[in-house]
Specification:
The protein has 6 helices and 12 strands. By secondary structure, the protein is of the alpha+beta class. The two termini are 25 Å apart.
């Protein structure tokens, strides 16, 4: 399983979350505490919003702990909204195109989990991506497929509803193919203004997801990266997180058929 963090708030240096903390994302790429895969060394990516509506991206094949360019970027880039992800590949290749986060226009997405039996239904899932968004299909992962399917279902207008419908459609394809392995979906999404996160699995055992409010802003993470664990709130299984500027965090239940 992968690890990720999302930040939204006052502008901070990326290194403040990605590199500096005692259990930073870079350290989690070597030793994750709450992941089925302790090491997440199959590539990484960061995406951040600056002067434009679309995010800047840096994705690389090497493990996060061995990339000096990542440390340099994080020490010099300041942003009010950014994503970072370290990958543990499942059944797709290790390539730059398969590294998270994924972006389309102003939308950015990253995922921790997998579609059980993905290779069996991969072609079927690609047909659920609309002609408008299929040109954005650069890699081969189930994560990117789910993002583009959700975009095809109106993700930009109704993020929670589109994700619910996407998960319903994917699980229907799995049932049709008699796949017994679960679909696990812990993910984060942003349009450059608000942040949404999701924690759902067909077997009720999704990967972990936490959030914390600090004086600077909101942090959403796969697992806490400091020792003040009592300051972190665990997102329950089967729920979404909605964080809009100037509003309290919402934790609604997901409705997946």
């Amino acid at each position: 399983m992968c690890r990720f963090i999302a930040y939204h708030g006052h502008p901070i240096l990326l290194e403040d979350l990605i590199a500096s903390p005692a259990r930073s994302l870079i350290r989690q790429s070597l030793h994750a505490y709450e992941s089925r895969s302790e090491t997440n060394g199959d590539g990484f990516g960061i995406g951040w919003y600056g002067e434009r509506d679309t995010p800047g991206m840096y994705r690389e094949l090497r493990p996060a702990w061995s990339d000096e360019n990542l440390l340099s970027l994080c020490a010099n880039v300041r942003s009010s909204l950014f994503f970072a992800h370290v990958r543990a590949a499942t059944d797709t290749s290790i390539s730059r195109a398969n590294c998270h986060p994924f972006a389309s226009g102003n939308m950015m997405f990253m995922h921790n989990g997998q579609i059980g039996g993905y290779q069996t239904i991969r072609r079927r899932l690609d047909t659920l991506i609309s002609d408008e968004y299929y040109p954005d299909r650069q890699g081969t992962t189930d994560s990117e497929a789910m993002f583009l399917i959700a975009l095809s279902l109106g993700l930009a207008e109704n993020p929670v509803g589109a994700i619910e419908t996407m998960l319903t459609q994917v699980t229907a394809e799995m049932r049709s193919a008699k796949i017994e392995a679960p679909l696990r979906f812990t993910a984060a999404l942003t349009d450059g203004k608000a942040v949404w996160a999701f924690r759902w699995a067909s077997d009720g055992e999704p990967a972990s997801l936490y959030f914390e409010r600090t004086k600077e802003g909101l942090i959403v993470a796969s697992e806490p990266f400091n020792e003040q664990r009592d300051e972190w709130i665990h997102v329950p299984s089967g729920n979404a997180l909605i964080a809009r500027p100037g509003q309290s965090v919402e934790i609604p239940s997901l409705k997946v058929a």
